[in-house]
Amino acid sequence: MNRLRQAAGVSALALSQRSGVSRSMLSRIENGQVSPSVETLDRLANALGIPLTRFFADLRCRTDFSHVPSGKGLRVERLGAVADYRYELLGHVLSGNLFVEPYLVMLEADAQPHVTFQHPGLKFLYLLSGAVTYRYGSRRVKLGVGDSLLFDASALHGIEDLGTLPVSYLSVVFTLRG
Q: What is the mean pLDDT of the chain?
């Protein structure tokens, strides 16, 4: 229960309020001190937005799996996104404490350099086409096809100069939930 609550990014207090299950009962359920009724589990499942059957899955044998066929990534319209940077989500992780966002990023014809990206977590980039100069804090690095970067994304970063077009790259952001 605790893992499902944390994966949903919900505090124990919020889950208690959403489900109508007392905070003390929720604590005893999470610590394995009581076996909740099916009605209580149903209220908790509804509050977490998961199917009731999720509580009965063998999590030791379960692994997250996401398959996205070529060209079928989910186009993501990001609020405040840089114009002419197109993002396609290539998968997702459904549970656990690690949130993983793999994107295919394609710069369209009118894309401009942008060096003020900044967010929590780690970022991995792998250049698929084109060439760019990438800025990370005060560092600059020229990237060509097949080059990669891995860095703490809390520093200012982004493409400083577009070299050879078209530019596309794999961008994977890793952040801890909660």
A: 86
Once rounded to an integer, what is the mean pLDDT over residues 15-34?
A: 89
- The pTM is what? 0.64
Asked, as a colleague might, if the bond just before 166 is cis with ω within 30 of 0, I would say yes
- Residue among 131, 163, 130, 170 nearest 149 (CA): 170
User: What is the domain-level CATH number for residue 29?
Assistant: 1.10.260.40
My answer on whether 18 and 94 are in the same domain is: no
Give me the number of domains the chain comprises: 2
Q: Do 49 and 108 lie in a common domain?
A: no
Residue pLDDT, tens place only, 61-86 = 556 777 788 888 888 876 656 788 98
Q: Can you tell me whether residue 17 is helix, strand or coil? A: helix
- Identify whether residues 108 and 51 lie together within a single domain: no
Q: How many CB atoms lie within 10 A of CB 25?
A: 16
Collapse the DSSP code of 46 into the 3-class scheme (helix H, G, I; strand E, B; otherwise coil) and give the result: helix
CA 4 to CA 172: how far, in whole Å? 23
Closest CA to 95 of 65, 130, 126: 65
SS3 category, 128: strand
Backbone angles phi, psi at 158, to 5 degrees: 150, 180
The region that residue 107 occupies, defined by phi over 0 for left and psi between -120 and 50 for alpha, beta otherwise, is: beta
Portion of the chain with pLDDT greater than 70, in percent: 90
